[in-house]
Amino acid sequence: MSELTDEMQRKSILLVDDVGSVRSLCKGFLRELGFERIEEAVDGKAAVQYLRHHAVDLVICDWNMPHMNGFELLEAVRQDPNIHDMPFLMITGTSDVERVKQAIAAGVSDYILKPFKPSQLGFKVARALTDSQHQSAARMEAAADEPEEAAEPTAEQPAAAASAEQSEQAAQPAAAEEEDLDISADAVAEEQAAGKN
Of the given ranges (37-51, 116-130, 138-152, 180-194), which has the lowest mean pLDDT? Predict the structure, then answer.
């Protein structure tokens, strides 16, 4: 089980939800867990604007919102080269397995079903931040292990091919972590049942 550390609690979180009472509740849960650096956005568009100008360590986002929903925000984050590897926790009120699979395919770090308890949110946040640290360390380690000439395109290997190969190698740790995330219908149903207790 992932534990929250002092270092994690110093991380900045962007909380994105169009319902003010839900943002307040989540913010209260996060403060109860020891987080102090919590910012808010009312929808995906406001979140994109915030992310363009502020450094954030984790996004916690509701799926259903007007203007730009959580899935669209997730796609925007994953397509932005400056923040593409930012941990992203999706909040959803539905146990629709297809929706969960869609989010995982788009690169969500984890998801949490409403309603949830502070301890459940804390576990998911700790796991997302821990996985993010492991991915960063793995990427740095992989970069250190690569021979220098492999990073430079050669005459036989055009720049675009070299870039694609490097992107594929960087994506391998993320793909391995997707396999660890249980998205079966039983797992979603169990999580939903646990949230009601």
Answer: 138-152
Q: Given strand 13-16, what is the order of strands in its sheet?
A: 38-41, 13-16, 58-62, 88-92, 110-113
By the 8 A CB rule, do 94 and 65 touch? Answer: no
Instruction: List the helix and strand counts (H, then E) for the chain.
Output: 9, 5
148 three-class SS: helix
Please give the Cα distance from 119 to 106 (Å, whole number).
26
95-98 long-range Cβ contacts below 8 angstroms, 24+ apart: 95/188, 95/189, 95/191, 95/192, 97/183, 97/184, 97/185, 97/188
| C-alpha span between 51 and 55 (Å, rounded) | 7
> Tens digits of per-residue pLDDT, 103-147?
999 999 999 998 999 999 999 999 998 887 655 444 444 444 544
Give the whole-angstrom CA distance, residue 177 versus residue 131.
8
3-state per-residue secondary structure call for 108-122:
CCEEEECCCCHHHHH
In a 3-state reduction of DSSP, which class is residue 43? coil
What backbone phi and psi angles, to 5 degrees, belong to 180?
A: -80, -20
pTM: 0.69
Among 1-5, 24-28, 117-121, 173-177, name the one with the lowest average pLDDT: 173-177
